[in-house]
UniProtKB/TrEMBL annotation, chains A, B:
Residues 14-70 form the HTH lacI-type domain. It comes from Actinomadura barringtoniae. Keywords: DNA-binding, Transcription, Transcription regulation. It comes from the Bacteria. GO terms for molecular function: DNA-binding transcription factor activity; transcription cis-regulatory region binding. This is LacI family DNA-binding transcriptional regulator. InterPro entries: HTH_LacI (IPR000843), LacI/GalR-like_sensor (IPR046335), Lambda_DNA-bd_dom_sf (IPR010982), Peripla_BP_I (IPR028082). The keyword DNA-binding applies.
Length: 344, 344
């Protein structure tokens, strides 16, 4: 066999001993060179020899061995989540991961999305991550203790409310509903409705947005009807024709959960002969690219973050370095801005 | 300190030696019990004692130690990709990961999305994965050799064409454009246009869909104009008004890349006073929930997979078990179906 080509049939993967033998140096030297050990003087000639031998043999240093040596990895573990990943979350995740990588961390997504508590923590702990970034509702006191006992430097939760067990990145969906309600009431709506999607995984967000609508409406003595709506044209049509038949039950301002549900509802209202915003004002959320393409152009609550993905990555890296574990620590994320177009 | 509570301040993470001491058994026994070693007889009483001690101390077995012992992990590594994750891909990924987990594999997403070739392979190899599932264009002969040399059982590529270096899961985007063109020509369109989104990451898909349109159009002697379009209303309006001013340059059938670009283009065409489908027929792709909500209702190419995520997971598990490495092995994925509504 030509030993210059790392071949698929070479059997046993090459070890650092093989590299040491091929380069004519000690195994310790191989380890120093390939791990860029600081403070060790090794000639350039030896370094080149070791690197060439490693390359020739197809040797890759072993992440597991490094973890065992140092007792902790550089891993930021983001357990896989059941949250339907929207474009915003996917972009946050990608940008944050990129920055963490530049800061020397390895971002790993894995795990059973339905796992939680101590059983989940035990599986996460097997990787000896430096940090775990996970939905607040999956954490328990025992789970967090398990992670810290396994040497995890920091657990950063995320969710609509601060976790009692760990520092939390707080995304407050209630603000989104509140922002829509403030706008609808200011423009004169006197009977509100709020859409709560019935799809599993979205219902929680819907309820929190509804709570935000209800909080503002209460303060202004305006009634709020809850409208449970699957993403289904027929069901949307039933709601719209119901409102046509019984104008007394009809709201004059609707917060439609997000822009996609707003599109669904607007279509049904228009097909039922209702005028937007004359009969009913409609407000979406997320300010998706489709919002200005609708007729009337859709008003939408834009969600802004006070913190950029880069800032969040740097903050997390610092928390790892400091071993920050105080549950009182919160990073607030969402501000909102009302983008008023023609539908309200 | 109360040793019944694994505390955040306990310092050094507990080791299997600590568990052995607390349970009054040997370290080997701890290892047998916690790794469910087959064929080793240990009394139920001892098993309970070990598990309780491990739980009390907050001990988690060490994934890295297990990897070093067995020389290969159960990891299916899916390097993070730059592909903008649509709903379809996210669902495929989640369902496939779920099944692989049930088959005893650990699905891990990580890595620099822009890395490729041997440099990328070296980083992936550090995890000693059992399999790597990655975009075909990121693989080179040397990269695949590096992975196999590190003990990876199989590399499964995915992309629009079979990889010359590894078995490939082939997703043929050309079929999508071809399906749209067949339909448009069958309904009488005599001058086609195909939208290619200018956004980075989408342009490749756009070009492959355009190629599919062009292939069918050539066979029917129908001209095809390429329309480069960013997701931008102003640019869409310019194209639409251009076609109004110069009807001779106007196509009578447009494949709009996907449903979102179709929505953007339809809005611009309608604002410019053109009738859909009277002046121009429009076809989208992906059959998104918004398609039937547009007026006219949007015709769309639905992409079907011949293989379910469960089947793909099982196929990959079998490839790992068999050490399947033949680049001639391909799994074909996409069939298409034309959903005809009102826009064409």
């Amino acid at each position: 066999m030509d030993d210059h080509t790392p071949g698929p049939r070479s059997g046993r993967p090459p070890t650092s001993t093989d590299v040491a033998r091929a380069a004519g140096v000690s195994q310790a030297t191989v380890s120093y060179v390939l791990n860029d050990a600081p403070g060790v003087r090794i000639s350039q000639e030896t370094r080149v020899k070791v690197r060439e031998a490693a390359e020739r043999l197809g040797y890759a240093p072993h992440a597991s061995a490094r973890v065992l040596r140092t007792g902790r990895s550089d891993i930021v573990l983001i357990p896989t989540s059941t949250i339907p990943v929207g474009r915003l979350v996917a972009e946050l995740d990608m940008a944050m991961s990129e920055r963490l990588r530049r800061l020397g961390h390895t971002v790993v997504h894995f795990g059973d999305p339905r796992s939680r508590g101590v059983a989940a923590a035990r599986v996460w702990a097997e990787w000896r991550p430096a940090a775990v970034f996970v939905e607040a509702h999956r954490l328990t006191a025992a789970a967090v203790s398990q992670l810290y006992a396994a040497g995890v430097a920091t657990v950063l939760a995320f969710g609509p409310e601060p976790s009692p067990y760990a520092p939390t990145f707080v995304f407050d969906d209630g603000n989104v509903g509140a922002c829509a309600a403030e706008h609808l009431i200011a423009r004169g709506s006197a009977a509100l409705a709020a859409v709560v999607p019935t799809e599993h995984g979205l219902d929680g967000f819907g309820l929190r947005r509804l709570e935000g609508v209800a909080r503002v409406a209460r303060a202004h003595d305006v009634p709020v009807a809850r409208v449970d709506l699957p993403f289904d044209e027929e069901r949307a049509n039933e709601i719209a024709t119901g409102w046509t038949r019984d104008p007394g039950a009809r709201p004059d301002g609707v917060f439609a959960y997000n822009d996609e549900y707003a599109m669904l509802l607007m279509r049904a209202l228009q097909d039922a002969g209702l005028d937007i915003p004359g009969d009913i004002a409609v407000v979406g959320a997320d300010d998706l690219p489709l919002a200005p393409l609708l007729r009337p152009r859709l008003s939408s609550v834009r969600v802004l973050t006070d913190i950029t993905p880069d800032d969040l990555a740097e903050r997390l890296a610092k928390m790892i370095a400091d071993g920050e574990r105080d549950p009182a620590t919160t990073i607030r994320a969402s501000r909102t801005e009302m983008i008023v177009r023609e539908s309200s």
